[in-house]
Write a structure and sequence with these properties.
By secondary structure, the protein is an alpha/beta fold. The chain has two domains: about 1-140 and about 255-290, Rossmann fold (3-Layer(aba) Sandwich), CATH 3.40.50.450; about 140-250 and about 310-320, Rossmann fold, CATH 3.40.50.460. It is built from 13 helices and eleven strands. It has helices at about 15-30, 40-45, 55, 80-90, 100-115, 140-160, 175-185, 200-210, 225-240, 260-275, 295-300, 310-315, 315-320; strands spanning about 1-5, 30-35, 50, 95-100, 120-125, 160-170, 190, 215-220, 240-245, 280-290, 290-295. It has a seven-stranded mixed beta sheet with strand order 3-2-1-4-5-10-11, sandwiched between helices. A four-stranded parallel beta sheet has the order 7-8-6-9, sandwiched between helices. Helix 8 links the parallel strand 7 (about 190) and strand 8 (about 215-220). Helix 1 runs parallel beside helix 10 (about 260-275) and helix 8 crosses helix 9. The relative contact order is 0.17. The model has no long low-confidence stretch (mean pLDDT about 95). The chain binds 6-O-phosphono-beta-D-fructofuranose. 6-O-phosphono-beta-D-fructofuranose binds near residues 169 and 170. 6-O-phosphono-beta-D-fructofuranose binds near residues 10, 125 and 170.
Length: about 325
Amino acid sequence: MGIAVLCSGGDSAGMNPAIRKFVDKCISVGEEPFFIYDGLEGMIDKSIKKASHKDVAGIIYKGGTVIRSSRSKRFFDYKYRKIAFENLKEFDITKLVVLGGDGSFRALRQFYDDFKIKFVGIPATIDNDIFATEYCLGVDTALNTIRTALDNIRDTASSFKRAFVVEVMGKECGYLALISALTSGAEVCVIPEIGYNLNNLGIRLKREVKEGRNYAVAIVAEGTDATNEIKTWLQNDVGMDTRITILGHIQRGGNPTVYDRLMGFEFMEYGLKNLLTGKIDNGVVTYKNGKFGMETIEYVTSQKYKIKDDLLKLAGKMTGVYI
Ligand code: F6P
């Protein structure tokens, strides 16, 4: 009987190291590993192939995912899930490992309810927005990519006495924006979790400009939709020549950092151990307080991820909102 791995939703660095671990581990314990290419879409379209060591040689350092990913609408429809199930049956695949976000886990849970295909989910998204786990694969790499971009932007901003509004990804979650703002010493940080007070920020920034500040960097989480508003405010109210940089998909690519490689191995090792020994039929690997654990899909999808209060409090000066 076979076991397959697939990626679903936005790709993230660390997926390839996890895929490498998947193949190595399965072969070492006598399981037959398969790849499902193109995520849930590939399961429907039968893009399934037996995997060997050769397929994963030299992929550890690569960003993205060598088995590709997709966001599948068809999988919501029972008709297509049935086709996917028939495809798995043809290859005698009875277990799945999915690297993705909570939407993908929910889809796999529905698939389990339909056809009893066992699975384990591994959190992999740069957004770090999955409840019950403190870490998702790809976050460290994305943060380092953003750090490099911010360092570069600061160079040009300070050379021109300019303000920059830098929009970062994260969907509804401000984690990437907050950590990037804190660790790059940004002047302004706008995230959905706290909001912002332009009055307080304006008083501070104008005073600093008077005292000699000649550039400013504002980090805005995409989920706030506030990029243009902050630009207009910096330009018209604070009085600084202002540019917008939207980092976009650059944040998703890049070679996985050492941390993401290691976490990719560890997440996969832990997930496989639980799935292959029959400890769980379906669940998600989580990482909390330095330990891996398993949680049910119901629990993982029951609440919105919350950034720790201690971290949010650190943002006070940059948001103009003190909590
Ligand atoms: O979930 C990861 C993510 O990169 C989000 O930060 C972003 O909002 C979204 O995916 C972009 O999706 P797409 O790659 O489909 O444009």
